[in-house]
Specification:
Strand content: under 5%
CATH class of one domain: Mainly Alpha
Order of helices and strands: HHEHEHHHHHHHHHHH
Number of strands: 2
CATH topology of one domain: MetI-like fold
Main location: membrane
InterPro entries: MetI-like, MetI-like_sf, UgpAE/MalFG_permease
Structural class: mainly alpha
Family: Belongs to the binding-protein-dependent transport system permease family.
CATH superfamily of one domain: MetI-like
Helix content: over 70%
Oligomer: single chain
Keywords: Cell membrane, Membrane, Transmembrane, Transmembrane helix, Transport
GO biological process, one term: transmembrane transport
Strand order of the largest sheet: 1-2
Radius of gyration: 25 Å
Number of helices: 14
Length: 307
């Protein structure tokens, strides 16, 4: 065989089978999400309130709902609060999750099994149950956290209301969401770590690379695709968080200063019966989610083109 012929790259034959196989999934997604999404999009351009639920035809208002949102200081406060909350929470979740994955990869089999079972239990706990436990922990009258902190000399935490102050409220919410999300990140990253050859790590160690250099130059680049997808998912999930914030608000304050986008949409729709405005906010959240997803999709396209 000549050098020229051996250098010829054999291209795999492309068929339509992969596209045929994803058709059922696409159909189910369209059936399950298509109608609600279309209804929500149409409602965002209508005046749709309590009267429309009793049969009155909705009034088409165009972009009036979106224009009104732009002039609402409350909306911008909720949007800014939600973006900061989701970025900080997602970043801390990924950092802690990576740390737990590295710990699982470094310890022995027995310790690893204990860690994995513990995180599975935290991950499997229902949201309502986990939030209730945190409400008990931070209760201002009988909470364990106040009791332990108040026992420290010079620290006065007697009847401190964690859920009555926006700063400490979102601190508690962040700890709760991070605690429930770390297992997913840890297991995903640990699965990526198991694909790294021990010989490569041993060779780097023999060459004099310290732990930080091995992580940044070998481990980090190899698990980068995993980190990208888990960070994206955490940003999307934390941006739309609803149940935890609602339950914590029920135990604390009902003020709008404690709202994120999920609870703000619910308040506009279910409480104020302004479904047009609620749909407009939902469309904005959808656009933000698509923008976040496009960053990841663009990287995938670049990697595919580079092959």
């Amino acid at each position: 065989m000549s050098a020229k012929s051996s250098a010829v790259r054999i291209q795999p034959r492309r068929t339509g089978i992969p596209y045929f196989l994803i058709v059922p999934a696409v159909v189910f997604l369209l059936l399950g999400l298509g109608y609600p999404l279309v209804w929500q999009f149409i409602t965002a351009f209508q005046k749709y309130g309590l009267a429309q639920q009793f049969g009155k035809p909705p009034e088409w208002v165009g972009f009036a709902n979106f224009a009104e949102l732009l002039w609402k200081g409350e909306f911008w406060a909720v949007l800014g609060r939600s973006l900061v909350f989701c970025v900080v929470t997602a970043f801390v979740t990924v950092v802690v999750g990576v740390g737990m994955a590295l710990l699982m990869n470094a310890v022995g089999r027995a310790a690893r099994l204990i860690l994995q079972i513990s995180m599975l239990l935290a991950w499997a706990m229902p949201v309502a149950a986990a939030t209730t436990v945190f409400i008990w922990l931070f209760d201002r009258r009988r909470g364990v956290v106040n009791y332990l902190l108040d026992a420290i000399p010079g620290v006065d935490m007697n009847r401190y209301d964690w859920l009555g102050n926006p700063a400490t409220f979102f601190l508690v919410a962040s700890v709760l969401i991070i605690w429930m999300s770390v297992p997913f990140v840890s297991f995903a990253v640990y699965a990526g770590l198991t694909q790294i050859s021990d010989e490569v790590m041993e060779a780097a160690q023999i060459d004099g690379a310290n732990a930080w250099q091995r992580f940044t130059r070998i481990v980090g680049p190899m698990i980068r695709p995993v980190l990208s997808i888990v960070l994206l998912l955490q940003l999307i999930w934390d941006l739309r968080v609803f149940a935890q914030i609602t339950l914590l608000k029920d135990a604390g304050s009902k003020s709008g200063d404690f709202d994120l986008l999920g609870t703000y949409i619910y308040k506009l729709g279910a409480s104020a019966n302004d479904f047009g405005m609620a749909s407009a906010v939902s469309i904005i959240v959808l656009l933000i989610t698509l923008a976040l997803s496009w960053v990841y999709v663009r990287d995938l396209i670049k990697e595919d083109e580079g092959r």
